């Protein structure tokens, strides 16, 4: 079922938004100073291409330790990201969600676009893992 969902997702907007993430990452890489953001864009672009069966989690939640992207520098990086690129990608996902929500079959895709819009606002410090690994990382209380 995940494979079918991912194929439909790719055709119905996921491919376009994945390319938007990659294009944003390319611009970030060209600026040299934006390499950390570019790396996050490539990871999130891959996630945007085929999101079903995967989930974005905070790296510190997964590894149980803080790193440069999950600490103060990650917060500063996310705020800079939000100002320069996050809003645009989030708006793209929200527009795609609106288009998908028009049909009944598109509602699950609209929900996924909304999740990706939230991630688009603050992607630094997140990583993509399978749903099973994400459940284990959250622990028994979630």
From TrEMBL:
UniProt-listed Pfam families: YccF
Main subcellular location: membrane
Protein's membrane topology: Multi-pass membrane protein
Domain Inner membrane component: 4-54, 76-126
InterPro entries xref list: Inner_membrane_protein, UCP028777, YccF
Subcellular location: Cell inner membrane
Ranges that cross the membrane: 7-23, 29-50, 71-89, 95-122
Name the UniProt record assigns to this protein: Inner membrane protein YccF
Organism field: Methylophilus aquaticus
């Amino acid at each position: 079922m995940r494979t079918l969902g991912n194929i439909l997702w790719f055709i119905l907007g996921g491919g376009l938004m994945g390319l938007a993430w990659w294009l944003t990452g390319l611009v970030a890489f060209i600026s040299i100073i934006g390499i950390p953001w570019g790396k996050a864009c490539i990871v999130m672009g891959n996630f945007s291409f085929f999101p079903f069966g995967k989930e974005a989690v905070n790296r510190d939640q997964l590894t149980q330790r803080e790193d440069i992207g999950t600490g103060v520098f990650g917060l500063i990086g996310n705020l800079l990201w939000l100002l320069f690129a996050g809003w645009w990608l989030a708006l793209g996902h929200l527009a795609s969600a609106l288009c998908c929500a028009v049909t009944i079959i598109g509602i699950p895709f609209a929900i996924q676009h909304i999740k990706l819009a939230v991630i688009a606002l603050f992607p630094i410090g997140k990583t993509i893992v399978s749903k099973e690994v994400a459940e284990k990382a959250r622990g028994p209380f979630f």
